[in-house]
Amino acid sequence: MYEHHYPEKRFNLTLKFLKQHQAPPQSILDLGVENPFSKIMQEQGYNVTNTSGTDLDNDQTEIITSKAQITTAFEIFEHLLSPYEVLKSIQTPYLFASIPLKLWFAKAYQSKADPRDRHFHEFEDWQFDWLLEKSGWKIVDHTKFTNPVNKIGIRPILRQFTPRYYLVYCEKAD
């Protein structure tokens, strides 16, 4: 479906989940710089604006001033020191977010090539649910899915049946 070697399963499931709850056309503020999935959302009829790459832990101006109808945050919150502050600053009534789940058989991710690319938080689903609730969001729907890899070893076998991603659709709580 996609031209490059993108994570096709994850993108297909995320797009289906998004369309199930908020069909295009809608305006979306996608947290993080432009990426392959934000381009896919645009191709599917959504009007997507990405944040400019500012450190969202220190500056939520783009989030606060956005006029979008929906905020998306796909694999963003695990990189933030204070996801609570970012979640509190979101002004849109709808939020779609996904996180990689903490796995008992894998350490927290830390890129050797890019010191900014690391996970400060590795959430279990209940921890992320609690964070969303505490920051003023009501989870309407959620799903978990696996992310098998074509490698040999114990961890690749475990990834065949252990959910790796957690995806939620939320609305602002009253």
Automatic annotation (TrEMBL):
Quote the Pfam families the UniProt record gives.
Methyltransf_23 (PF13489)
Taxonomy, superkingdom: Bacteria
Q: Which organism is it from?
A: Psychroflexus salarius
**Name of this protein:** Methyltransferase
Q: Which InterPro entries match?
A: SAM-dependent_MTases_sf
